[in-house]
Amino acid sequence: MHTVDTYTSMAPGSVILAGSGPGDPNLLTLGVYKALQACDTLVYDALVSPEIMALVPASVEQHFVGKRGGHPSIGQEAINAILVQLAKAGKKVLRLKGGDPFVFGRGGEEAYCLSCEGIPFSIIPGVTAGVAGPAYAGIPITHRDVNANVAFLTGHESPTNAAGETVPTTVDWESVGAAFPVIVLYMGVKNLPTIAKRLIAGGRSGETPVALIRWATTPRQQTMITTLNRAADDISECKIKPPSIVVIGEVVNYRDHLSWFADDTLTRDNCKNKLRDDE
Ligand code: SAH
C-alpha cells in the first residue's frame, strides 16, 4: 500500500495514473510535478498542453497515445497494453491525462486493467476542465442566487448508436434540463444543437445563456457566449471546435462582471480574424 509521502517516489514496474489539469501549468498538482521528476517513462494524451510538456525532464522516455491531426487515437485496449508492457519491463511509468483521469477520462478502465495484471499503481487526481474552464472564463459554476446543484455530463458517446448518432442515449436530456439549473458539458460541441433542442423541449428557455470555452486556461483560450436558441448557428458560423467546455445556465451572465483572463471573447464579428487553425 502507498502512503501519501511515498507514492510519488515510484518503484520500478509501477504506474502513476495522473491528471495534468486543463492546460495552465499553474494548475498542475505538486504530486504530478514530483512524479514528473521521479518517472522514467511518460504516456500522455493530446489534452496535456505544450506548456506542461515543456516541464518534462529531457531524460524521460515519451509515448504519445492521443489523437493528432484528425487521426483517431490508438484504441483503449492498445493503450492498456502499452501501460502493462512498460510496467512489466520495470519502467517507472507516469500515465498523464488532461484534466482529471477519472472525469470522462477513461482512467477507471486503465486502473482496472493494471489491477487485473497485478501492477502496483496510484492515482493523482487533476483539476478538471469543467471546473477550471468556467473559472478562467469568469463563470462561477455555482452561485447562491442561481443554483444549489450542477450537472456534469458528456455530450458525446462512442461508438455511434443504432440511429447513427453520438448523443448519449442513457441521458434523459429533457429531465436533466428541468432538474439542473446549471449544466457543464464535456465533449459537447458537436451535439450541442441536438442537446439544446432537447433541453428546450424539457422546458428550458431558448434564451438560457450558454458559454463555450475552448482551450480553457491556456494562452489559446477563447470564450463564446450564446443562447440555447442561437448555439447551433453560432457554432457553425464561428466553426468552434473541440476541445471546448460548455456551460449552460444563468451563471454564465456573471462573466459580464467576473471575466478576468486575457482577451478571450469570441463573437460572430471577430471570429473570422480570431479563428485558430490548431486542432
Ligand atoms: N479528463 C478530462 C476530460 C476529458 S474529455 C477533464 O477532467 O478535464 C475531453 C473533453 O474535456 C473535451 O472535449 C472538452 O470538453 C474538455 N476539455 C478538456 N480540456 C479542456 C480545455 N483545456 N479547454 C476546454 N475544454 C477542455
UniProtKB/TrEMBL annotation:
Gene3D superfamilies: Cobalt-precorrin-4 Transmethylase, Domain 1, Methyltransferase, Cobalt-precorrin-4 Transmethylase, Domain 2. Pfam families: TP_methylase. GO terms for molecular function: uroporphyrin-III C-methyltransferase activity. One of its GO terms (biological process) is siroheme biosynthetic process. Its EC number is 2.1.1.107. Pathway: Cofactor biosynthesis; adenosylcobalamin biosynthesis; precorrin-2 from uroporphyrinogen III: step 1/1; Porphyrin-containing compound metabolism; siroheme biosynthesis; precorrin-2 from uroporphyrinogen III: step 1/1. PROSITE patterns: SUMT_2 (PS00840). SUPFAM superfamilies: Tetrapyrrole methylase (SSF53790). Residues 15-230 form the Tetrapyrrole methylase domain. Keywords: Cobalamin biosynthesis, Methyltransferase, Porphyrin biosynthesis, S-adenosyl-L-methionine, Transferase. Belongs to the precorrin methyltransferase family. This is uroporphyrinogen-III C-methyltransferase.
